Amino acid sequence: MNEDLLKRIKIAGAKNFESYAQKILEASANNGTFGMELVDLLHDQLPRTSCDNCGKCCNSNSVYSLEYHRIIREVMAKWKPDRILKLIKSLLFFDLRLVEAGDEKRLRCVFRDDITKVCLIHPVRPFSCRIYGLLKENGKRECERVRDLSLPAQTVKEEYLVNLQAKILANSESYEPYEGKGQIHFFPIEFWFFRYIFSPERALQIYKEILVPLSKPLTKMWENQKEHIPDILPSDYEF
Description:
Blueprint: H1 3-15, H2 17-30, H3 36-43, E1 49-50, E2 62-63, H4 65-78, H5 81-92, E3 98-101, E4 104-107, E5 112-113, E6 118-119, H6 127-131, E7 147-148, H7 158-169, E8 187-188, H8 189-197, H9 200-214, H10 216-221
Antiparallel strand pairs: 1-7, 2-8, 3-4, 5-6
Helix pairs in contact: 2-4, 8-9
């Protein structure tokens, strides 16, 4: 992990916290309602489930850019200002959410309240959360603690999930984390957070050099990608 980059983020965050907070809120506010109804409509086409709220799966999740804006707009509309600022601090100093699950390092979800054991954004939670534990074609689930709210339980085919999410791709941002490996739309919430504070290039650097090494699930995703992003001049970004 790039310890120097992480240190620089913390220093910049402490120094420019108010301006960073304003950038984050303005970015999602300026996005307007574009795509928000689409996101809600697609989310609603998945089976409704419940679970025991053990929190085992509540780690930093990858989301589409429209889902990110949907979450931030929900926070802006319903949370008190002091709570919003606390959230932004937690996103900015994300390494403080590092935990160990068995032999894995994971980054706890910023929206998981481990005291009350609830999801703070449950009504607008992203696809990655909604899909987890759904009954698959082979009759299995990733977690047996997930239960369908309607009976009989609805089997969800992979093709259905792919087609459902494909409808959001045309309206979401995409980037190429590793040269020649293709564009992807799905990034951790922390990536989008830094993308709107700094730039896509800086966010990709943070993603590759900090987020991936910091989180075992992300490391598994890119374990065969060894390329290093080119150096970026400090003068290129507000750091």
